Amino acid sequence: MKYLRLLTQFFLLTIMATLPVWADTCNSFASYTCAKSTPNIVHLEGTGETGQSVGELLGSNTFSVSFRGNKSFVGDDLLLLAAAPNTLTGNVNGVSFASLSSFPEGGAMGAIQSTWTGMGILFNSPSFGYANVGTIGTTPFTITASGVGAGTIFYAEVLNPKTGQIVFITPNSEAGILQGQTTVAPEPASLTLLGTGLLSLVGLIRRKKA
Fold first, then answer.
1. Which structural domain range is residue 92 located in?
2. Whether pTM exceeds 0.85
3. Residue 186, preceding bond cis, omega within 30 degrees?
4. DSSP 76-91
């Protein structure tokens, strides 16, 4: 009896540990509704793994989305959901984000916030949005993020445009966090300091020559 109780507790703890990975549910948003059954099969192809709840590391501003299983998605639309640690900026495949007040996959916010925390990303006022990047043709489907801030997390959903229903979503483990290439612009004060230093150096060289 004692061993049975321990086995039951272990089983329950195992299920609880896997909930952050598989807890995602489809929530209706904008003009889109959810199909009755929403299996998790949309996968973001990253350059590595994060070791966090959001599993894919998107080390480049160009990445791809692939689809598990035998179903053909040709003719369906691809929606990208985005969660930014602060202000959501930029576009994907030239399509700007429409803003959302909350993230449209139930169970995702815990995974998103724990991933930001685990990767040392500060999030003061997270913002959310979505972009319909168009009809799916050949797969994997390539995405180029432009002007999107590092730390932005992407989930993908497949939309049947005839019914307006979301038919497939991304589980936490197969969503991706963007690192990308960022260019740091020098601050005006830093430029002034650099200019002053160069002028001082020129003056010192002239004195030595004299």
1. 26-201
2. no
3. no
4. SEEEEEEEESS---SE
